[in-house]
Design goal:
Layout: E1 4-5, H1 16-20, E2 26-28, E3 33-35, E4 55-56, H2 65-75, H3 102-108
Antiparallel strand pairs: 1-4, 2-3
Cofactor: [4Fe-4S] cluster; [3Fe-4S] cluster
Function: Ferredoxins are iron-sulfur proteins that transfer electrons in a wide variety of metabolic reactions.
Organism: Nocardia tengchongensis
Length: about 110
């Protein structure tokens, strides 16, 4: 199980977590970042760098909502896209995806 970024990251795109990730598995949506569960090596480098404490270690995930949402960001076609993002192998070359999951979009609008 990978690390997960929760709702505290919505509208907070500081990027400190991205800078320390050794495998470049943290991707940027429109208003939130997402950790690719297939690329995360669970090193915990991102955990202490998050300025809003939005990153959760696998052992601390009690509610599967954000784990499932993170997986959906990569496994399902995002709004306005025909194909799933999948496992691009790193976010640096990809840049901002420019769209969030339906859950995040519904919360960002509040």
């Amino acid at each position: 199980m990978a690390y997960v970024i929760n709702e505290k990251c919505i509208n907070e795109l500081d990027g400190s977590c991205v800078d320390v990730c050794p495998v470049d598995c943290i991707y940027e949506g429109l208003t939130k970042r997402y950790i690719n569960p297939n690329e995360c090596i669970e090193c915990a480098a991102c955990l202490t760098e998050c300025p809003v404490s939005a990153i959760m270690a696998p052992k601390d995930i009690m509610d599967p909502t954000w784990r499932d949402d993170s997986a959906a960001f990569f496994a399902l076609p995002l709004p306005g896209r025909d194909e799933a993002l999948g496992d691009p192998g790193g976010s640096i070359g990809l840049g901002s995806v420019g769209v969030d999951t339906t859950l995040v979009t519904s919360l960002a609008d509040k």
